[in-house]
Design goal:
This protein has 336 residues and is an alpha/beta fold. An 8-stranded mixed β-sheet has the order 7-5-6-4-1-2-3-8, sandwiched between helices. Helix content is 46%, strand content 14%.
Amino acid sequence: MKTPTPEKYKKNENSIIVDISVVIPLYNEEESIAELFGWIERVMAEHRFTYEVIFISDGSTDRSWDIISELSRRSPHVRGIKFRRNYGKSPALYCGFRQAQGDVVVTMDADLQDSPDEIPELFRMIKEERYDLVSGYKQKRYDPLSKTLPTKLFNATARKVSGIRNLHDFNCGLKAYRRDVVKNIEVYGEMHRYIPYLAKQAGFSRIGEKVVQHQARKYGESKFMGWNRFVNGYLDLLTLWFLSTFGKKPMHVFGFLGSFMFFIGFLATVVIAIGKIMGLLWITDSPYFYLALTAMVIGTQFFLTGFLGDLISRSSPSRNDYQIEEIINAGAKDGK
């Protein structure tokens, strides 16, 4: 399908400066940065998009920032954010979203596994088909089994919990967003895996998917281990589901659980009292009764502690306070 040129799309906000903002979080990707930017540059020139590319160096210890700085001197389209230390992908995206000035915001990884050739069609789907968010789907992957198997399990769980049935690859780094989406969601912790879910909760329900080309990693090794990512992703998904369901009405669940536990405890006390009066101590004679009771109490305490801790984290004014060492803020107001 031929992608229309951006002249047909009129800007509705004075604050929108360019057609597309490309947000690229990275950690120690010195070999691929220049090649990736050259690829993006060619695609944008071919389709006559106005654009900016925002690189976020997430505490990189190699020459990544030096290369970004050099690119910014050569091109007015390059902007950069440098973290003092490694915070993770979600903080990098959060800061990139705050800086983005484009009508459409595209995210992609810096390892050359995401193809910039997909950008024009993603842009078209946002503008013409009126999607709020379009997520890439790497149908054919070039990752090791230790990464692909956990990813499949994770995506099946995420579809079930989030209710977004049409997405097959929640964690795909290649996504396109309407500007309003990235300005109205808060990505923190490791919630980048669930940006479609966050967008849905914020009222952006038009979420689509596009099959995208996945390339074999050209340089270095993956910075993420598959099974560790699955475990962390599962815990984050559970937290997000619980907070979205009960975060603003915790008494509905805790009141019910507390009442239920009190009722069970009261019945158990009555039974034990009757048993003692009648000389039938068959319940308390078994150590398994105490073990089960202790496990229930400890499990409940752990769950409540985790929930309260996450509520405190969300209420903390410093939850998205990151130490940024340097910002390259080269504008793209008049460049094509």
